[in-house]
Amino acid sequence: MNRVALLCFLLLCGRIVSGQPSPVSIQVNAAKPVGEMKPFWAFFGYDEPNYTTRKDGQKLLTELQQLSPVPVYVRAHNLLTSKGNSPGPDLKWGFTDAYREDATGKPIYTWTVVDSIVDTYVRRGMKPLMEIGFMPKDLSSKPEPYEHTWSKGGNIWTGWTYPPKDYDKWRELVYQWAKHSIDRYGKQEVTSWLWEVWNEPDIGYWSGTFDEYCKMYDYAADGLKRACPECTIGGPHTTSPRSEKAYSYLTRFIEHCLRGQNYATGKTGTPLQYIGFHAKGNPEFVDGHIRMNMGVQLKDIQRAFEAVNSFPELKNIPIIIGECDPEGCAACAVTRDPKYGYRNGTMYSSYTASSFARIYELMDQYNVNLRGAVSWSFEFEDQPWFAGFRDLATHGVDKPVLNIFRMFGKMGGQRVAVQTNRGLTAANIIANGVRAANDVNAIASKNGNTIGVMVWNYHDDDVTGPATPVQLTISGLDKNKVQVRHYRVDDKHSNSFETWKAMGSPQQVSTDQYKTLEKAGQLQELAPPATKTVANGTTTFTFDLPRQGVSFLQLTL
Fold it and tell me: Any signal peptide, and if so, which residues (predicted)?
């Protein structure tokens, strides 16, 4: 073939056009299991507990449970925080007024608001990851100033962050809470929950020392176990362990629980039934666009897994990534910093697909018992439409990222082998990010007669680019035909944000517009369901996947 003929051939194939990527080949072997498809993604959390019982909060919680094949765990801050002088819930602020003292210092327990929150979970079959915090005003060793005014630019680390003035009263508070929970919900229900003490004690959330945190944890665990010996407690839910300070705090805490003197009992050791830590990415705004950094989030997870494995006594202990996100400020709108502008569209959704797949990879590599990875994302009340918060829905309308969890909800059973000529490994991303070629890869599972394959086209840079041609081959099939459904998240599918922009980005939405947005927020199919022929146990799909797009193919044998 001469050069002119070759050029014509390539042009006809559509591969030499301006910047168009070459095809990516992905092979899935449905007959080759590689590990359990653990639904560790079915964990969610948020700062503002009072939003739980609002209309949009209840709607979102219902959707989260409906998308998951297992009970969803919910972690909320501020379950013991006092209202103080605050006018109401706010960004990074909520309260329950569960504890106060009378004029003589006698504790008064009021569980009304806590119950309304937990009732909302339990009615839906959800489970609380019950966070014991923060410090009630009447129990704080430095109660004034108490409530914070972070949303107005004020100091956030106020009286709610301080150690208790009386550790016996702190222990009794936890005991009474657990006892009340058993009385209200029954022991069988309460023992299915998870409990923890505080949040990120290695930074400003805790204004005490390391030793004071250990003491607070010991007293809380003692109170919980007195009411409910079968209940599960863990921690310390420290920040990103790629930081030496956080890594040291985590390992010192583990040492204390395994071999230190228990402040509450005087004995050696403290209950530690799971390990909790947080993992965050670090986006930047560079050269006029957002650049994500998945590598540092995966580095956090890698370092924490190494820390756990350094203690032989902890082999197979459950691990919970208590916050697992592209960065660390859910309540920061895009108006606060342009780097948060990734959250409304498909960058957030493709990042989630790619990063969670790599968490499975690290789980396998380090042979750990990963129980949960909490997406710190919920919904915010009384805020503009698509304000750029890290949330799953706005005004009750689902954002594209929520549809990635709907895709994960369709997976189960065993993960099966995937090979690709273009995908990156977790180690690649930790070392170099996704800064050169796009990461086009997949994760696949087989559950009975159903096979699910999630394919993403991710890049750290939030810039436009051409779609990537994908050739997906699935082998190991034992039928002559399969039923196929192909779901998609991209600019045209499962994307309420693009629909809203096409409306002119209204802040006053009509009833008909709301219905259109609500429908656009649901998981949509790229094409109608179809029947596909299988030859020699194999079938092949070809499709173009837009940059930051995610496809999910569901095959029923």
Answer: 1-19
The catalytic site residues sit at: 200
Domains of the chain: 18-34+412-556 (2.60.40.1500), 38-409 (3.20.20.80)
Amino acid (1-letter code) at residue 308: V
Q: What mean pLDDT is predicted for residues 287-310?
A: 97
Q: At residue 10, does pLDDT exceed 60?
A: no
Report angle CA 112, 227, 129 to the nearest 5 degrees. 60
- Assessment of whether the complete model's pTM goes beyond 0.85: yes
Residues 6+ apart with CB under 8 A from 84: 95, 137, 146, 147, 159
**Contact assessment for residue 141 and residue 167, using Cβ atoms and an 8 Å cutoff:** no
- Mean pLDDT, to the nearest integer, of 535-552? 98
Which of 170, 196, 253, 525 is CA-nearest to residue 371?
A: 196
* Residue 177 falls in which region: left (phi positive, over 0), alpha (psi -120 to 50) or beta: alpha
298: burial class by Cβ within 10 Å (0-12, 13-18, 19+)?
Answer: buried
413-444 in b/e form (b: 16+ CB < 10 A) is eebbebebebbbebebbbeebbeeebbbbbbb
What does pLDDT average to over the chain? 95
Question: What's CA 467's distance to the chain center, in Å?
Answer: 27
Q: What is the pLDDT of residue 216?
A: 98
